[in-house]
Amino acid sequence: MRIKPGVDIRNLTVHGLLILMVAQQLRPKVRLTSGKDGKHKLGSKHYTGDAVDLGCKEFDSEENRAFVANLKSSLGMDFDVLWENVGSANEHIHVEYDPKGLK
Hints:
- This protein is α+β, with helices and mostly antiparallel strands.
- The chain has a single domain (2-97), classed as Muramoyl-pentapeptide Carboxypeptidase, domain 2 (2-Layer Sandwich).
- The chain has helices at 14-26, 61-75; strands at 2-3, 31-34, 51-55, 79-84, 92-97.
- A five-stranded mixed sheet has the order 1-2-3-5-4, covered by helices on one side.
- β4 (79-84) and β5 (92-97) form a beta hairpin.
- α1 crosses α2.
- The longest helix has 15 residues, at 61-75.
């Protein structure tokens, strides 16, 4: 795994760490671009350590589509996997733990 300079992975939750482990298995050269660092929307799971952003600009669309599908399948329904800002300078894959339990 490659980690962008300045990324804060201290105090990620077990769910945040699980995301990293699964991503690393699926894409060995995965690039972590954000953990608990950076500016995110109010209430973002980044601030609790339950979300990370993964770089994807160095891969083509088909590779990214497959990676997103495999992450979703591997992590299960309590995780959201979103390919965000496609085609922009801020293109990345956002992954967060967001339990869907019965309410």
